[in-house]
Amino acid sequence: MPLFQAVILALVQAFTEFLPVSSTAHLVLFPWLLHWPDPGEAFDVALHAGTLLAVILYFFKDWLTLLVCGLGGSYPKSAPAEEIAQHRRMFWYMVVGTIPGGILGKLFDKQIEEHLRTPAIIGVSMILVALLMWWADSKATQARKLEQSNLGDAIGIGVAQAVALWPGVSRSGITITAGLFRNFTREAATRFSFLLSAPLIAGAVAAKLPGLIKVHKAGGLDLPLSTLAVSILISGVVGYVVIAFFLRYLQTRTLKVFVVYRIVFGIIVLVLAFLKVGAR
């Protein structure tokens, strides 16, 4: 893969992983439309490593607090007992919320990768989730803050995150939508979504990394390490900026623009798939 293709796809990943528009859809459709070769599993891992870097860096203090408190410590030391208890609960909510996606990913990731990453399926998913997102954004109460999270939220949003394995759904889109249906504010639903993404992305990277290291040592890696490093850096830095922008954006605005984008994009994809524009 030429470096310019890697840079473009890294930018696509950085923008679409955190905005509710489906990174999988865009990463499948860009090469399909432009007749680029499949970048391969190594590149996919590099992009997700960059995404993981972005979400960990942005929420570093939050995760440090959750980890220390969740494992029995107190952070910060001066925090009252009630706040420490809330952080401890939130840590275990993140654990519970990660389980559905982890199980479904382990069981069905290969089948989804081989059989469902088609333009027609992605186009339909883009539109259906857009309508669901519009419903949640316009009808939900949106009164609860992140500190009011409970076990039901963790289970509901965790199941939604598992559904995001279906191409075109969007992990951030469906989990934010689930959070809105749980009556979180838009910002609280998005923070819950982004925090919950870190363990699952880390698990996906960790699961694929040993095999890729083995392939690299055997000389079977098609992509140069420099290209993978540039991809990680770009998706990480730009992803960090996108997270900051999106959280600020939702403080005063709705998800309407993303609903419209998904519907228009989905229709275009279905038309092009029908016309077989991307056929090689």
Number-wise, the strands total: 0
Distance between the termini: 18 Å
Low-confidence parts: none
Given the structure, what is the number of helices? 11
**What is the string of SSEs from the N terminus onward?**
HHHHHHHHHHH
Concise account of the structure shown:
With 280 residues, this protein is an all-alpha fold.
3D structure, described in words:
The structure is a single chain. The model has no long low-confidence stretch (mean pLDDT 89). The protein has one domain. By secondary structure, the protein is an all-alpha fold. The protein contains 11 helices and no strands. Helix 1 (3-18) runs antiparallel to helix 2, helix 4 packs across helix 5 (81-115) and helix 6 packs antiparallel against helix 11 (256-275).
Summary tags:
280 residues, mainly alpha
List the helices and strands and how they pair.
Layout: H1 3-18, H2 23-34, H3 41-58, H4 60-70, H5 81-115, H6 119-139, H7 151-163, H8 171-181, H9 186-217, H10 225-249, H11 256-275
Helix pairs in contact: 1-2, 1-3, 1-10, 3-9, 3-10, 4-5, 5-7, 5-9, 6-8, 6-11, 7-8, 8-9
